[in-house]
Amino acid sequence: MNTESPRNEGPRPQYEDVEDVVRYQLSRRSLVGGGAAAALTAFLAACSDSGSYSDKPADTNKPAATKSIQIGKANIPVPRDQSVIVGQVEYTVFDSFNGMIPNGSPNGAGVELATEPLFFLSFATGKLTPWLATEYKYNDDHTELTMKFDPKAHWNDGKPLGANDFRFTVMALKDRPDLFGGGGELKEFVKDVEVPDPQTAVVKFLKPTPRFHYNFIAAIAGAPNNIMPEHIWKSQDLTKYKDNPPVRSGPYKLKQAIRNQKMFVWEKDPNYWNKDKLDVKPQYVIFQSTSKQLDQASLSFERAEFDVGSIDTQHATQLANTGYPNLVTTQFHDPNPRVMWLNCDPARGVMAEPKMHWAINYCLDREKIGTSVWDVKVPPANYPWADYPTNDKWKNDELANKYKFEYNLDKAAEALDEIAPKNAAGKRTYKGKEINLEIITPAQVDKAEYAIANVLKADLAKVGVPCTLRSLSGSVHDEKFQRGEYDIDSSWAGFAIDPAQLYTDWDSSKAQPIGKNAANKNKMRFRDPKFDEVSRKLSGMDPNSEEAKPLLDEALEIYFQKLPLLPVIQTGYPQFFNTAFWKGWPTDEDLYEVPLNWWPHFTLILGKIEATGQKGPA
Amino acid sequence: MTAEAPPVVTVDKSQASAPPTGVRAWLSRHPLAAYAIRRFGLYLVELWGALTITFFFFRLMPGDPVRTLIQTLQQNYIYNAEASAELIARYRTEFGLDGNLFSQYIKYMEKLFLHGDMGPSLINYPTPAQTVILRALPWTIALLGISAVLAWILGVIIGAIAGWRRGKLGSRITTNLAIALAHVPYFFVALILVYVFAYTLGMLPARSAYDSSITPGITPEFIGSVLKYGLLPGLSIVVIGTFGWILSTRMLMVPILGEDYLVYAEAKGLKGSRILTRYALRNCYLPQITAFGISLGFIFNGNVLVEQLFNYPGLGTTLVTAIQQLDFNTILGVTNIAIFSVLTAVLLLDLLLPLLDPRVKYWK
């Protein structure tokens, strides 16, 4: 048998011509061409400009607007001209409003518009406004607190609201440390609550306290404890009940929670009990998750699809530079200045020395940090609290001048020479050991708290103190921080309504040994018997009383001497509002209320704004 | 004691050479079934192995979910988030985080396999993780599933034609375009589409999954709205996905064109279109089917960036949120569904390939 095929002897068919096949494979030219096309596409996309709203040169800080904006169609189920639309975070909870269990209620979704405190304290104006309660009064030895409730107040289902609901809330929560808002101060102080009449509640304490009412003031975000309607909750399991729709007392009621639109629609309650005092203007307030892609989110703001939020500082600055006529930027400082927590435990060596704290303080270039590290320009912080009008009374400029905060590396080196002189190798040593500090922060490496720590690290290196700086994620950081396994922590201060509240946490009795969880108290392991004595006296005193003033100053002076916590900068978080549909938002010039949409104070803003008459596109 | 002679064992030769009976016999007579059973056994082992590795892998992530949540709440000034040890202990138990890793694993597997329960989700407590996942899954399947299938079909067809008509202007344009765009990220294309079609031309919506004024239901109005809102995100995935499949199909097609059987088919006088579809394409689309099966896993993880750009209520966003909050039950649930889908798709493909391609035989 002939094994050779005659076909194989002939010329190869064209499909098997290797050169031919290779010719049609991707050539270098094709690759270069393709690459060039991709580059061109990228270039054109990068060059695309959202346009300018001004063709006039800027004679002030902002170009004059010559063009009006193009309004986009907001995807909402209610009329646009009657709605304020707030851009917010990613929501995951839509069917539960029980804030006592983990993620049992959506945060920043407008529940705050329905939930009212007993009192509002405005950090913008410094004013304490009675709301559900009309007054509070302690007896002379602070063992009893009487709360009076507004007789007009009622829940949004029409049932009366008053002292019985207050008693129910306090008694239901005081022995439930397994609930958010449960246990804590309620358990520590409350013996019983008496209700002599439906508008009066008398809280009997186990021990004196002049600050129990703080638990019911909306000062920083919502109040620590909001009262619950007894008629709804008394027959429910507090760990399971979803409270949907939420029965509250505020000017808005939940109309719809649309999971697939990541949207909450709140409608004005026509039967709101306090209309005389607060008549909110928008018929609807909508909270919706914005796109996490910042360009997309800011385009939505630019087209007025959102009235509040949905734009970040960088895009807002760009938009302002184009002359965009409807942008209002309002600065507001966070309740927490950015701080450095200093570990004072003797086990951390040189960190236990107050002079070391001062040396670190001299290395903090607050001006530089406030000008170039934070997103917006912010002032330095000289006290461990925010620069709100309500906090002015706690300041003492004489003491602040005596213990002046300044950036001075020579003074830092001088202080270090006394406690940690350099050895023959030129390294600073403390009790024979070379110094090397550990700085930790919960902020990611691209965040400001990390950058602040990095600035400090560089300056400490200049005076011969080497440091390691580590960014640790959430609970990993928390564990190290609480266990005292750090030297310096770059994060934020705790917040308080008065300094004595802050100082109470710094009591020596709450300082745990290194390695043991501090449970959020005295995380810097500060120990000072004199400070304890003063702070304990203050804890039983009305901080506004005459007798408290010298003690507050005394405590402040010890604080300045020992510096367990270094305030660095005030924290500015600008808020952005669009005036296409609504005007009268709080501004830097007229900061009539805290401009944060996730605080209950936002309802007070909704009572001040006015519709512009602009209609949404069909 | 007398020694007894050992018993004589006689072997029935006819019995020894008889074919096996029972299950073994049946299996030897049905090689396809034998293969399928063997393959299914392997599938179960793979599934168990993958679920186990995933469980331990996620548990190695540093951090405590309950403490992380409390810290997040505190940072957001949820003032009553001050948590007691009792609260932390209670929810560690609820989320299956108490005890050692092995006991957590046993408890998780027991709940998963015996009760079909993935445990409560942390991001939407006390809703079970499977409910949270099932709420998002239809959107992801509708958007990413349909887009992926569409991209695959278009890519294979266009890629085959581009390979078949290599050298022609249309083929060269398509190929160069595919080279340029195949590896452009979806979200980048999505952003351009949004800018052009939503913000410049105002033709299509840029966010959400449907018009919020329409009540969801099986109505033409709602379906129309979902299609309209899904067009831009879907288009971004289809456009880029198609270019990827075009390139790979073309590359599989070009070497096939030199095969003898195509010359033979041509010599027989068959039409070009018939040679392409019946001879050339059938020989190059099998690897593409396998690749598509494997790519199904990515569908279940969602296209996070596209979902986030369009604020789409899919599984990708759910997964990212769950990871951010260390919601192990939801993370594991999504991952396990992806594992199950990919392994099942590969199993089915393994069983189907012999039907699609007569040359493929797994059994002797």
* Count of individual beta strands of chain B: 0
Distance between the termini of chain A: 85 Å
Number of helices of chain B: 15
Computed over alpha carbons, the radius of gyration of chain B is 28 Å
Beta-strand level of the residues of chain B, as a percent range? under 5%
Q: What class, by secondary structure content of chain B?
A: mainly alpha
What is the helix tally of chain A?
Answer: 18
Overall geometry of chain A comes to globular
**Percent strand of chain A:** 15-25%
Overview features:
heterodimer; A: 618 residues; alpha+beta; five-stranded mixed β-sheet; four-stranded mixed β-sheet; 18 helices; 22 strands; B: 364 residues; mainly alpha; 72% helix; flat
Could you describe the 3D structure shown?
- The complex is a heterodimer of chains A (618) and B (364).
- Chain A has 618 residues and is of the alpha+beta class.
- Helices cover 27% and strands 16% of the residues of chain A.
- Chain A has 18 helices and 22 strands.
- In chain A, helix 9 (354-362) packs antiparallel against helix 12.
- The radius of gyration of chain A is 30 Å and the shape is globular.
- Residues 1-16 of chain A have low confidence and may be disordered.
- With 364 residues, chain B is mainly alpha-helical.
- Chain B has 15 helices and no strands.
- Chain B has helices spanning 13-16, 22-29, 31-59, 65-75, 85-94, 101-115, 129-164, 169-181, 186-200, 220-256, 260-267, 272-301, 304-309, 315-324, 328-356.
- The two termini of chain B are 56 Å apart.
- The mean pLDDT of chain B is 84.
Task: Give the helices and strands, then pairings.
The complex is a heterodimer of chains A (618) and B (364).
Chain A lengths: L5 H4 L8 H7 L3 H20 L35 E6 L30 E3 L6 E3 L2 E6 L5 E6 L13 H12 L9 H6 E8 L2 E6 L11 E2 L11 H4 L18 E7 L4 E6 L15 E6 L4 H9 L10 H9 L5 E4 L7 E5 L11 H9 L3 H8 L23 H6 L6 H11 L9 E2 L2 E2 L2 E5 L6 H15 L4 E5 L2 H9 L5 E5 L6 H6 L24 H11 L8 H15 L2 E5 L5 E4 L3 E2 L18 H5 L3 E2 L7
Helix pairs in contact in A: 9-12, 16-17
Chain B lengths: L12 H4 L5 H8 L1 H29 L5 H11 L9 H10 L6 H15 L13 H36 L4 H13 L4 H15 L19 H37 L3 H8 L4 H30 L2 H6 L5 H10 L3 H29 L8
Helix pairs in contact in B: 3-15, 7-8, 7-10, 7-12, 7-15, 8-10, 9-10, 10-12, 11-12, 12-15, 14-15
